[in-house]
Write a structure and sequence with these properties.
By secondary structure, the chain is of the alpha/beta class. The protein is 41% helix and 17% strand.
Length: 412
């Protein structure tokens, strides 16, 4: 094993966390380890759980051929910007320190969780004289400017953009999780286009296998009965507006055969709670092993995205809805790649933010035509299996790692 290539992956959260970046990293890295048994893969992540920062995971673990090293970060919550920035800084310091304790490193891969993940990778790669790959989950500072967290064009924004662009330029590859994100980088940053690639995160459908001894238990717990369930499951972040969805839910509040489910947490949970209709349920995050039960309880899955986010992020929850074989209603920009999938493969309906009338019509149309709804669900699963499987993503990542390692190998 001494000659094995050592791949270091850095992400603020990792298995068994339920957040998207942790789930994706787990899906991919386990598969890459099987595809390339000659690799040694180490993960550096934070010890605190994403959904409950009072939970601490073991400092070191060996799972499925991966070595996991978890470092401390302060208990800062997910709301206060300044406290989060402080938490990111502590994670960076501890991640760099942990990397010093490792033996030879041949490649560093880091994500935008935390936002300065590429900076961490660059520092480690410079010390180890090896390349790094920058994986863009959310495009910063573009996303922060859209959400009003920084003023576009202000000195902080300009410096952040310049630094991030430099990190992209120095990376061996910049991997985007969405085609529109890669296109935006190509339009607005002077990065070698050969460096920028798209690898969709994908999803492992085996995560939806029903291990609950009572089929349909989650639906029963929600007293859904024979109701038509409109479900939003996942992060309720600032990039996922709920005004249109809550307005539609309010308009349909008197239709007792419809139930709205809002499952998860995040900054907008309080808004949902304040506007919850009489036929709505607000439900906490469910354990990962219940994901199949949760998604199968829906008759239609909702995805909401800020209209200006279409080329800065790609909500992970879309993959689970597709894999569960459920019709999709996407509330967002029609220029989004999700809108393209939904329209091209006829997996559901796209509605622009603010068009409450169209969202109500879409819900009623899908509810009123069970045969069409079933075909949408089958189309969604076909799309998931053919193009958006985590197996496909892992194979693409393994090939990319091979190329980067080959390019960095000394030539005689």
């Amino acid at each position: 094993m001494s000659g094995a290539k050592h791949i270091l992956f850095i992400n603020e959260f990792f298995h068994p966390d339920i957040c998207a970046s942790a789930a994706v990293a787990w899906d991919h890295l386990v598969r890459i380890a099987r595809l390339r048994p000659e690799f040694r893969i180490t993960v550096i992540a934070g010890r605190r759980a994403w959904h409950d920062s009072t939970i601490l995971y073991p400092q070191t673990e060996e799972i499925e051929g991966l070595r996991i090293v978890r470092v401390n970060r302060p208990l800062v919550g997910r709301r206060g910007l300044l406290r989060r920035v402080m938490g990111f800084a502590v994670f960076e310091q501890n991640a760099v320190r942990a990397a010093r304790q490792l033996d030879r490193v041949d490649l560093v891969i880091a994500t935008t969780a935390p936002p300065q993940g590429a900076s961490i990778a660059a520092k480690i790669a410079r010390k180890r004289d090896c390349p790094y790959v920058y994986k863009v989950l959310d495009l910063y500072p573009d996303l922060a400017a859209t959400l009003g967290r920084v003023a576009e064009g202000a000195i902080l924004h300009r410096r952040w953009l310049a630094r991030d662009t430099k990190l992209m330029d120095r990376a061996a590859r910049v991997v985007c999780i969405g085609r529109q994100m890669a296109d935006r980088i190509g339009r607005l940053r002077n990065i070698n286009p050969d460096k920028v690639v798209t690898i969709h995160d994908g999803f492992d459908p085996s995560r939806l296998e029903d291990i609950d001894p009572l089929p349909g238990a989650f639906r029963q717990e929600c007293h859904a009965g024979g109701k038509f369930v409109v479900q939003y499951a996942g992060n309720m972040g600032l990039s996922h507006p709920f005004e249109t969805i809550m307005a539609a839910a309010a308009a349909l509040a008197e239709e007792d055969d419809i139930q709205f489910q809002f499952i998860g947490g995040g900054p907008q949970r309080s808004y949902i709670h304040a506007h919850l209709p009489r036929n709505g349920l607000l439900i906490d995050y469910q354990p990962a092993e219940r994901l199949g039960q949760v998604l199968s309880a829906a008759n239609v899955g909702l995805i909401s995205q800020h209209a200006e986010m279409y080329d800065k992020a790609l909500p992970y929850k879309v993959y689970g809805i597709f894999a569960a074989g459920r019709p999709t209603i996407f509330v967002g920009n029609r220029r989004s790649e999700i809108a393209d999938w939904v329209t091209r493969y006829q997996t559901g309906v796209c509605v622009e933010q603010g068009r409450t009338d169209l969202l109500i019509s879409a819900i009623r149309d899908i509810k009123g035509d069970p045969a069409k709804a079933a075909e949408m669900g089958r189309a969604a699963r076909r799309l998931a299996d053919a193009l958006l499987h985590s197996r496909t993503a892992a194979e693409a990542w393994a090939g990319l790692i091979d190329r980067v390692l080959d390019e960095s190998a000394p030539r005689c």
